[in-house]
Amino acid sequence: MLMQSLVSTNWLENHLGSPDLVILDASLHLPMAARDPRQEYAETRIPGARFLNLRSLTNRYSDVPAALPTRAQFDARMGALGVSPASRIIIYDNSDLRTAARAWFIFRLFGVKEFAILDGGLQKWLAESRPIASGLDESSPPSAFSSSGGTGSISYKQDMLANLATQENKVVDARDARRFRGDGADFRPDVASGHIPKSSNLPYDAVLAADGTFLPSDQLRSVFAEAGIAFERPVITTCGGGVTACVLLFAMDLIGQDGTLYDGSWSEWGADPTLAVETGPASGDGA
Q: Does the keyword Repeat apply (predicted)?
């Protein structure tokens, strides 16, 4: 039986030490947070956790900023971490951005079957005074890892341009309302403020409870409905850099809805002065 896509902190504590269990820290932070995820991992981590280094799990040869890795790059990272095809993988983060969802998208894209996100992440784990460890865990020998298959859809700039005319897809921006409206300068140099024309805004944290866990399915459906997202058209999610857009995609997956990631997101669109930009609240384009 395949793992559920979410596991609780209680489940993980009860399974610590299982020989086939691999725990990965997928923390990542915005530059203004001035936080070093590797240092924080070394100071406080779940026992047995290995550091995924999500920031570097990208395709540096792509023109897309911080692009998703290639299959070869993903396989190499899994092999270096000692992950085997028989491993059961738990992904967690210690980030306000809930970056484990980005890792979820990558793992699913490359066909990994037995993996799940730790609901609530390290924040909830620490709040419940569960076991912790420190130091870098580099004890796992490298493995021969080869992925195959996978699910998940990606949109590129040309797809988003085409959608401006056709509106075949509903574009949903996961950034906070201030950044979506374009209130003030973007924190990235030479990136415009605002959003892709005719897109809707659903901040990623709207799908989370106060303790950082994902809302129950009925509440998730209500959140999407209240944001005007009725899934009558395919959904493309976007954000600042393709990270929190994955939080919305994961929440959609929890309620049986699929979607597409615009990987370049605003860091690509807003950096191109030839592209149309809207500011202010969402103009509305239907469901």
A: yes
